[in-house]
Amino acid sequence: MTVNQAISKYLHNITMARSQNTARSYANALRSFKMVLNKRDLATENTMVRKLPVDAIAWFAMDLKKYAPATESLYLTAVAGFYEYLAAENLADPNLPKLRMLIRQRSRRYGPRLPQFPRSQIEDVLNYAATLTTLPYKNEAEGLRNLRDRAFLLTLANTGLRVHEACSLRRGDIDWNEGKAVIIGKGDRQDVVRFSNRCMKAIRDYLKGRAKIDGASGRPLSSLPVFSRHDRGAGKKIKPITTATGRNIVSQRVKEVLGSQSVGKITPHSFRHYFVTTVLHGSGGKLKLAQELARHRNIAVTQRYAHLSDDELDRGYWEIFEER
Prior knowledge:
A 3-stranded antiparallel beta sheet has the order 1-2-3, with no helix packed on it. The protein contains 15 helices and 3 strands. Strand 1 and strand 2 form a beta hairpin. By secondary structure, it is mostly helical. The radius of gyration is 23 Å and the shape is globular.
């Protein structure tokens, strides 16, 4: 089996077992890895995978210095997983202890990064989203997009859902009486997500506007996506929005409110940052509560947000320096 063939099999397994985002990131990592191998005269379409040297991870680590440390870490994890896959499937016999040693020696170490996001601008976007249903629209599809986008943005901000989780929501996932949904989250874990009353109302308004199309689909309502496409490609069919569409919704509405210079600075994940800090601020800094609601496995991740909501530190600072 060639290196290319083995990589294809590995990525297929990743696609079946992990999220779309993870699969996409791993595919990018292995694409970069193949480029490094080809530069070293190891043509991946011809080289047999049993002849793939463990030292290639060191070559790859050197090439990754042009990327951010977080990208370097992710890409090395993806390629290390490829070597482990080769060993597990008996496709090759790599020296895994040496592999891990090379990664430790060659990769950069970096401390935790504090999440940065423009909180006030996100609130401007949310305030604008609340007015979308009052805007004039040219046709039914545009009206539905306004209803959908309001509900989608409020869902991101009020639930902490990741963009792929929000896009994957089905009507049957939501307990409409309790305002909760059971989802399969990161790491294939089953999680409970809560919806605010404002968020639930926006979703209900959107689905009410979509009722005629949903009823004509011939499918059980519970199986239909919460957030659907309303474009020429979808026609009259009920198709879930993709993560790309979710990002485009954010980009479009950010551009309308803040201008094109802010596109890319506010992403769907910015709303997740907003959610965590809002929980911390509203709860008086209860880290455990924020961890559980954000579904962080490690409370250290949640602690990165604590400084952003620590009013006591802010007051103490200004009391000291404003008196001088």
